[in-house]
Structures are given as C-alpha cells and as structure tokens.
Structure prediction request, 692 residues.
Amino acid sequence: MSDDIPHDVHARYDALAKAVAAADIAYHQQDQPILSDAEYDAQRRALQALEAQWPGLKAPDSPGDKVGAPAAAGFAKVTHRVPMLSLGNIFAEAEIDEFVARVQRFLGFDAGAPLAFTAEPKIDGLSCALRYEHGVLVQAATRGDGAEGEDVTANVRTIAEIPQRLAGSAPEVLEVRGEIYMSRSDFAALNARQQQAQRPLFANPRNAAAGSLRQLDPAITATRPLHFFAYAWGEASALPATTQSGMVQAFGAYGFAINPLMALCADAAAMKARFAAIGAARPGLDYDIDGVVYKVDDLALQQRLGFVSRAPRWAVAHKFPAEQAVTQLRDIEIQVGRTGALTPVARLEPVNVGGVMVSNATLHNEDEIARKDIRIGDYVVVQRAGDVIPQIVEVVMARRLADAQPFAFPHICPACRSAALRELDENGEADAVRRCSAGLTCPAQAVERLKHFASRDAFDIEGLGDKQIEQFFADGLIRAPADIFTLAARDAAALKKLKDREGFGDLSVKNLFAAIDARRQVPLNRFLYALGLRHVGRTNARRLARHFGSIEAMLHTMRGDADIAMKEITAIDGLGEVVATSLQEFFAEAHNNEALDALLETVTPLPMEALISASPVAGKTVVFTGALERMTREEAKASAERLGARVAGSVSKKTDLVVAGPGAGSKRTQAEALGIEVISEDAWFARIEAGS
Ligand code: IVH
Prediction:
C-alpha cells in the first residue's frame, strides 16, 4: 500500500469494501439482501471511484471487480403442494400468556382448560421440504417464497443425515420438513479453509449453510458438512400420529435427527421454564438457534386453528433478545415512499450485529430523531431482532463529539422540491409523518408506486423488479402503470430496442414481455392492492373486491354520489371512514381516474365471483346465531370468509343463510319471516366440507 494515501481514505475504502463484500454474500449466497439495489449500486460505485482515484488502494480481491449481476437461475422451480409458512414472532415472556389466551379464545376453551404445547429450539438455518414416495426420497426443495422453492434434490442427496429411504413403514406419500444447518465448529473450519484458499468468508453458519446448499454443483455441497432437524411436514397420504410431539417422534423412527431439547409443556408456566432452559443451553450448543417455537400439540386443534395470512394460529416463535452493537452515524438520508412519506434512514459505519453486517437503520420519523437527540457523527447503539430492519436504540452520549451535527429535517421533498407537510388530524395534532405534497408528479413517489404495482402481492411481474423500474422510469419508458402493458408494442416500433441495452438480452426481454402478458388478467383484489391507495393493503383490497365483485361495480359506486359511496364503503365489514375517505380522495383526483382508465384499457381485473365460485358459500352473506358447539364465533367467521362468504352480525333482506345453534332467538325468527334459509351447525359443516 502506498504511504501517500490519506488515512481517512484508507478507512473509508476498507469500510466500503467490507460493506460491498457482505452485501454480495447476503445477496448471492443467502438470498437475503441487506442493502437495497440502489444502496448496493451506490456503494459499489463509490468503491470503484476511490480505486480509480487512488490506484495504490485497490485490494487484489476487491469486491468492486466482481460482477454485480444475480447468480444464474440454475435451479428448477418447485411449487409447494402445501405452502411453507412462516411464524409470527413474540419477544417478551408476557406474550406467551397472550398467545395461549388467544388460542384458547379461538377454540372457545375456558382459560384454565388443559391445552398442551410443544416447545423446541428455533434453528437458525434454512428450511427444506423432503418428499418421500413409498419411503424413498424423490424430491427436495427450498422454501423460496413459501409458495414456490428451488429443486435442490441432487444437493440434498449428499447430506448424510437425510435418509434416502425411510426406516419402518412410512405413509405412501410424506413430505418431511425441517431445517438444514451447519454446526458452529464446521462453520469455523470451513471459513479457515476459505481463508487459506483466499476465497470470501461466510458471515455466519446460516449463510454458509445456504451458500453450500445452493451450489449448482452438488459435488461442492458434498464437501460441506450439512445437518438436518425434522420438525414439520407438508403433504402426507396419512399421518403416523395425532399430535405434534408424536409426529416428531415418528420422524425419529424413520431415521431423521430430531432435536433433543424439544419438550411437551402443559401450560404457559411450563413454556416459560422451557424457554429459560433452552436459552441457558444455547451457548453450549454447536449450532445457532434464535428462539423457541411453541406449537399446539393436538393436531385436530391445529386444524381448527388454521392460519392467518402466512403464519399458523397454532404456533409462534419466541425470539431471543435483540443483539446490539455500537457504531458511528455517518449521515441521515431521506427516502421518499410511495405515499410521499419522508423517511429518515441512518447511514452507519458498517458494524457486525449478531453475525450480520449492518450499514443502514431506520429512524422512523423526525420526532424520533429529536426525541433521541440523534446527531450526525454520534456513536449509537444499533439493534436488530429477527428479520426486522435494524433500529437505533440510543445515542452513546458519553462519546458525543464536539462537532456532532443536529439534523435539520427537510421541509421540502428531496426528490421534487415540493413542500413536505405534516398533516393535522381531527384533533389538530400533527401527523408523525411528513409527506411530499406533490402526489404523482413527484418522481420518487411515482417510482415507488410503480415498484409496488409490479411487486409480488400486487401484479407480481417477474423480471420487472425495483432496478428495472428505476431504469425504465429514468429513461421515460414507464411513467405510469399502463405504460408497462404497452412496453412491448412500443419496443417493436422503437429504433433502440430493449434487448440492446446493458443488462438485457434477447431472452430476458422475451421473458419480461411474456411475464407482462401473463398479467393482463389479474384477480380484482390484486388489482386494487396494486393501485397503492392509502389504507388499502392486501386485506382491505380483498374486502373491497369481495364486496364489489367487479371493477365496474366499484367504479359505478365511487364515481357516483359521494354520500352513497361513503355509506356503502363504511358498511363493508372491517372497513371504516378512514378507508372510505382515502378512496374518495383517490377518485376525486382527475389524474388518478385517467391513469385508472388507461390501465383498464390494457388490463382486465377478474371478477371476484369467478375466483371463488367453486365454494358453495362464495358470495353469500351468512349470519351465525345461537350457541355454536363445534366452533367459536371467531372460528366460524374465519372459516366462512376463507370460503368467500361475507359474515354479517344481523339478519336483513341481504342475508342468504343463517346458521343457528341452540338458543337462537330473534335472528332466527326474523330470518324465517324473511324466508331466508336457516340451517344447523352440523348442516353448515356438511355443506362446506362437501363443497370445499
Ligand atoms: S415450524 C408452519 N419449527 O423458522 C410452521 N420452524 O419463522 C412451520 N424454523 O421457515 C415452521 N426452527 O425455517 C418451525 N423448530 C422449528 C423451527 C422453524 C426453525 C424456521 C423455519 C421457518 C421459520 C419461520
């Protein structure tokens, strides 16, 4: 290294090189980016600029030399026949009581009623689904997004701890699920080998396990010591047990490793004791765990409890306390979101927090910065817990530098220079969030909305990720959602073709156009969610879609009399004035209506009826009354809604069906008077089971 390079340039270069290398590992080997694409690009560019300016600085293995493109999509995709779900998290002991109470309430149990749970370590690896047919391993898949993973069969066959053939008599079809992980000692040995071979090091055992499993060449996986704990299952032609603990025992008998710390707990007190015991055992384990998972033991009860969005109601993950580290705050940057919210983001001197390099943290809003008196240049305590975005806990005041700069939160939007305002609520209190007032004319908002529009839960257009949208927007190719659907036609007529651009080619452009074409018809709920209206997330979009049934019906209402629209929206179960007002504000703007009409010329939202018409109660309005014996009210409502029914609290002319238990009174009489069908709870089950 040459001596004439200033010390601070060295320090900055080292920090940047580390940050880029860490981001590379996280992205390529772990599939869990720690930086957004834009942040990553900016850091790489900064690194390369320093290298250009100070040639003596450049390390022989500079991450600036590596190609930033994602790894080739070398694995075939596997659609999970039973989705691979995630778990809800809790962090405090008191939340165990809340979890138990919630389960009891849902099941209609008395608070003291016996209800057993299993408690087991949450292994910090990657989940994998192993499919056995006639006892023989036929397929292994990663979790992926839960709906679709990657086929890693060849690689999994190299893992000694995973049986190729099940011992004993297993069901004809059985998908065993569990966690693939690397032991701490094997991780240390692997990193030592990597270092010797001058190859990049892995940040932690999970990273190493993921990188080892996702090798395109199974011969490499075979050299990496991977382990597996079985703890769950997917498709099964029959189940060998009626309890969670019994299932795991059965996995043990088939030849799988099962975790020895798993225990059956009779109540919340026992769960707390188990949490403490597993926590105490943690430092002595040769594998990483990041919490304890509690599951209702009785499988029939699991079945009744079912799922909310992507997590089971019958299980929860109790995470160990967040890990913390101290680092310096370099700068505060303002990001402009899809609804114009100005969000401050802390740019940190990269620091290792519990095995992950952190260089950004959220600062929430301007009041938070003021409350914690956070100044640029301060040393701050950074914390990360589970998958949440790292946070700044507090400033280390003892280390405050004399020149630490208080942060002046901008009152104009950094993207478009329009005024950024804090709205007042009905009590005259300023909203915590400052928003750019320019709406869609603000480029940052427009780009963020487009990203949302194409994102997984919205239009889900493969190949049109954040990076591509930023590029297309900057080049003026896509300014509004409708432009996405005219892209192919315009490209055909253009002189400079997409396929000739950097980062594109014949095939990727063809795939992109095909992915866009595949979304010319989308379910109405996705369509509404994609519009990105304030307060209309996935759940509310589904409520609106279910209520209106078609976009035409919705437009008819929203573009008609405002009072009637207000009444209609607020009458929808689960929706109130906040959503109704947000919708009205959207439809009051001419440019929103124009953009929507332009979109509807190229895209057809599929009516809701078509989507759930297979269900016998789809689109029906159902009222439950009287004492229900086989399910609680909450359970009844959830099961009906899952099948596309609307559940109402009172009987009216709009009611299609009344499910009446013993002791049903006025609602039953009312229904009979109106000539509405009244059935028993048993008949309800017969009907939904027959049709679903
Ligand atoms: S049960 C339907 N048990 O945690 C519930 N998950 O946050 C299925 N994990 O994707 C998961 N140890 O990768 C379960 N003992 C354990 C686990 C465990 C680790 C992981 C798993 C899952 C994630 C959910």
In short: Residues 621-690 form a domain with the Rossmann fold fold (CATH 3.40.50.10190).
